[in-house]
Write a structure and sequence with these properties.
Blueprint (H helix, E strand, L loop, with lengths): L1 H9 L14 H10 L6 H7 L5 H15 L3 E3 L5 E3 L6 E10 L2 E6 L12 E3 L13 E9 L2 E10 L6 E7 L5 E5 L8 E5 L8 E9 L2 E11 L6 H10 L7 H11 L9 E2 L6 E4 L8 E7 L9 E8 L1 H4 L5 H9 L3 E2 L4 E2 L4 H7 L7 E11 L5 E12 L2 E4 H8 L8 H22 L9 E5 L5 E6 L4 H23 L6 E3 L5 H12 L13 H11 L5 H10 L5 E3 L23 H13 L20 H5 L1 H31 L6 E10 L2 E6 L3 E7 L8 E4 L4 E4 L5 E3 L3 E10 L4 E5 L28 E3 L11
Parallel strand pairs: 5-7, 10-12, 13-20, 14-21, 28-33, 29-34
Antiparallel strand pairs: 1-2, 3-4, 3-6, 4-5, 6-7, 8-9, 8-11, 9-10, 11-12, 15-16, 16-19, 17-18, 19-20, 22-23, 24-25, 26-27, 26-32, 27-28, 29-30, 30-31, 32-33
Helix pairs in contact: 5-18, 11-12, 12-16, 13-15
Length: about 775
């Protein structure tokens, strides 16, 4: 009777009642395999109603089964079938296969067996997971593989730590993080073969609050050339090494014949590529000439020729899978992490001067008002007449430099652009002319200078030709009802507009929320400001009020450019979205070329059925990859700026306030960039009000006010190249000169929270409004 009761009691944990008595090996295996929850020793004992000595015998049985290779032990001491995966376990997403995320168990201890690659089945909102994420998932065997059904996205607190090994005066080793948002160092419990000063990857061990680091990988000297880029690559998990199969396929693809007889021959035209002086690849070239058609008097014909990447990178190929995984190229000051192997990105798909290249040509007919009257697309063969730097093209137009292409190529390009510019001005897109930093390195990777890029007419010329081609690509696909990977930029949300209204009110600038918001609305605001000191800070706040652009197969328009239909077509070497648009054009306009004789290369270069079915998912993925690249590039420039400024610690510099919080304000060095904090504790002993709407700190007794955009002189107190962080102080405060400040672990602990000399007045300035 007692045995029967035990069986009934065990029933809820099992789909069927277990036989009485001590279980056999097979019964234990069946229970573990069929259990919907992690099956540890306690759960197994409860299921079979085991007590006392039986539990001890079960422990011995489980050990024997593990020794015999029948069982493995996973997280939380739960058992699972050897070579299998626990029913519920923690997985880490490590790869993308086409559009399916691939995960592996976070802990895998099956000796001699590789960790399984588990396909993640996403449900509900897509795009929530990406490479590097950790999930708690329910798993199941499916055919010869495994599936994972996510239950919960886990925090990234247990991710690998990236930092520099530091040795304190007492001999203890600490890991100093490279992420400036992490303000705590971590004690190192296992240094392995790393040395003081090494840049390392480490695994967090222990439990809060006693977390320590175990060094797993040594990345080298953090100050060596290219290390700042490597820090960003490792921190953000950017794929930077091409698998051998992908490299081999790139070589095979680059040997494909151009099929000159099947392409439109444009080699007789003086097409030119105009790019940055430090460009590593050239994927676009332009040509223009007056239109000889009497019906288009005063108009022009133009060609925007783009590298025919879709001819070489075909759907379903290893090259294609790797390109989708990367989503885009990532550009650092010292190196490029390309979307495609160098065999293609900087050779066969790069439009080099004097060499025959496969191109996708966008033919435009532009009327005297700058409106594109018609367009067509063709697969062409071109021979670029010259690759010019923006500065050289501009100098030739300005008469400051001789160039044999001035008359046949450059002057017609500029004349046609004058028409495109008229149409642009009529459209009135968002005009935020904010500075862009450029880091210049010498041949050894050392910093020569950090400067703001000069904005030339040549830049705007190429920009307008590219925009015209991108619009034509979107409209051409719409005309055929073909799928389009749109570049979407939505209208700003109400919350951000309300915040902008409150901010502008601090400058006595009215901003009505009831009006229809257009790009011209913001342009009018900028005109009101004129050339006052506040112009740059107001433009910055307008930029912050904008939504993040993204890729999607649903058209929501491009707010910033004031365009109804917009797709990226002009950079397929470095953006996967453009490659999809090229494929769609090939299919929609019957531009397919003869199939390759090499059977290892897929026959078609047009959009595949899989591409078509997964446009939404791919759009989410590549939008995430784009944001990852932008953050990595920005952080790397911040590190270079900090390295450049480290020789100027203790000096007074001209700065501008970029952000204000209740704990202090952030400032950037004029002309260089790089944000640094001025803690409110260094502003004096008086109380300060934090004006959230006005984004300012104001002293109660002195009336001193620190607000976003304000220019002032500050002393550079610290410049940390490892994490790109700067720290400033007011010039009147005493500060050491010379080398960067060293950390002193004997200092008293800093208490977190709002500083004692701060009062928060929320979104209203009240009686402290500046008069």
């Amino acid at each position: 009777m007692a045995s029967t009761q035990k069986q009934k009691k065990a029933a809820p944990a099992r789909a069927k009642v277990r036989p009485a008595g001590f279980p056999t090996r097979q019964q234990v295996m069946d229970f573990i395999t069929e259990s919907d929850t992690p099956a540890g020793k306690r759960e197994i004992a409860k299921a079979f109603g085991l007590k006392g000595q039986e539990k001890i015998a079960l422990k011995a049985l489980l050990k024997d089964m593990a020794d015999e290779g029948l069982l493995d032990i996973g997280p939380a001491r739960a058992f699972h079938k050897m070579g299998g995966v626990p029913k519920v376990t923690v997985l880490r997403i490590v790869d993308v296969d086409d559009t399916t995320l691939i995960a592996t168990p976070e802990r895998w201890e099956a000796e001699g067996q590789p960790a399984p690659r588990i396909r993640v089945v996403e449900r509900g909102k897509r795009g929530a997971l990406t490479i590097g994420d950790r999930i708690l998932a329910r798993t199941e065997e499916a055919g010869k593989g495994w599936l994972a059904h996510p239950m919960k996205k886990l925090a990234k607190a247990t991710e690998m730590l990236l930092g520099v090994v530091e040795e304190m005066a007492d001999g203890k080793l600490w890991l100093r993080p490279v992420d400036k948002r992490i303000r705590k160092d971590t004690p190192i419990s296992d240094i392995g073969t790393a040395k003081k000063g090494d840049l390392v990857l480490a695994e967090p061990t222990g439990r809060p609050p006693r977390i320590s680091a175990r060094v797993t990988d040594i990345l080298g000297d953090p100050f060596a050339p290219r290390s700042f880029s490597l820090i960003a690559i490792h921190k953000h998990g950017i794929p930077h090494v091409f698998p051998e199969a992908v490299e081999e396929e790139a070589v095979a693809a680059s040997n494909l014949p151009l099929h000159e007889d099947k392409r439109e021959d444009l080699r007789h035209l003086p097409i030119v590529a105009i790019d940055p002086v430090d460009a590593r690849d050239h994927d676009d070239a332009v040509w223009a000439a007056p239109d000889e058609d009497p019906a288009n008097e005063g108009g022009f014909k133009a060609i925007v020729a783009i590298a025919d990447v879709s001819y070489y990178v075909r759907p379903g190929s290893a090259l294609d899978r790797e390109a989708r995984k990367r989503g885009n190229s990532v550009y650092f000051p010292d190196l490029v992490v390309p979307m495609l192997p160098h065999q293609l990105s900087s050779d066969m798909c790069s439009l080099r001067a004097g060499q025959d290249r496969a191109a996708m040509a966008c033919h435009l007919v532009i009327d005297a008002q700058g409106k594109v009257k018609s367009f067509r697309f063709s697969r062409a063969i071109i021979r670029v007449a010259a690759v010019l730097a923006y500065e050289n093209a501009q100098a030739a137009i300005d008469g400051e430099q001789d160039n044999e292409l001035l008359e046949p190529a450059l002057k017609p390009l500029w004349a046609c652009w004058a028409l495109l510019r008229k149409a642009r001005e009529k459209r009135d897109p968002l005009a935020l002319d904010l500075p862009e930093r450029r880091v210049v390195l010498d041949e050894w990777g050392k910093i020569v200078s950090v400067a703001v890029r000069e904005r030339l007419d040549a830049h705007m010329l190429i920009e307008d030709y590219m925009i015209a081609a991108n619009v034509a690509a979107a409209k051409a696909l719409e005309a055929k009802k073909a799928p389009v990977m749109y570049r979407v930029h939505e209208t700003p949300g109400r919350d951000k507009l309300v915040a902008l209204k409150e901010y502008l009110a601090t400058f006595d600038i009215d901003f009505a929320l009831g009006q229809v918001i257009r790009p011209s609305t913001f342009n009018q605001l900028i005109k009101k400001v004129g050339e006052s000191e506040e112009k740059e800070q107001i433009m910055t706040q307008i930029l912050r009020s904008q939504t993040q652009a993204y890729y999607a197969p649903q058209n929501m328009g491009h707010f910033g450019l004031a365009l109804g239909s917009y797709a990226h077509f002009t950079s397929p070497i470095r953006r996967y979205a453009d490659l999809l648009v090229h494929r769609a054009l090939v299919g929609a306009y019957d531009l397919e070329l003869p199939a390759p004789k090499d059977r290892a290369i897929p026959d078609r270069s047009s959009l595949s059925q899989e591409d078509y079915e997964n446009m939404g998912r791919v759009g989410e993925m590549i939008s995430g990859h784009e944001r990852r690249a932008m953050e990595a590039e920005r952080e790397t420039i911040d590190r270079y700026v900090a390295a450049f400024l480290s020789a100027h610690v203790g000096e007074v510099v001209k700065a501008r306030i970029t952000g204000v919080q209740n704990f202090g304000f952030f400032a950037t060095v004029e002309g260089l960039g790089g944000d640094g904090l001025v803690p409110v504790s260094t502003l004096g002993a008086e109380h300060f009000f934090f004006d959230e709407a006005g984004k300012a700190l104001q002293g109660v007794e002195s009336g001193d006010r620190y607000t976003v955009g304000q220019r002032l002189e500050l002393r550079l107190a610290e410049a940390d190249p490892i994490n790109g962080a700067l720290r400033f102080e007011l010039p009147d405060n005493p500060a050491p000169r010379g080398s960067p400040l060293k950390r002193d672990r004997t200092r008293p602990k800093i208490h977190r929270g709002r500083p004692t000399n701060i009062r928060h007045i929320g979104s209203s300035r009240g009686k402290h409004k500046k008069r």
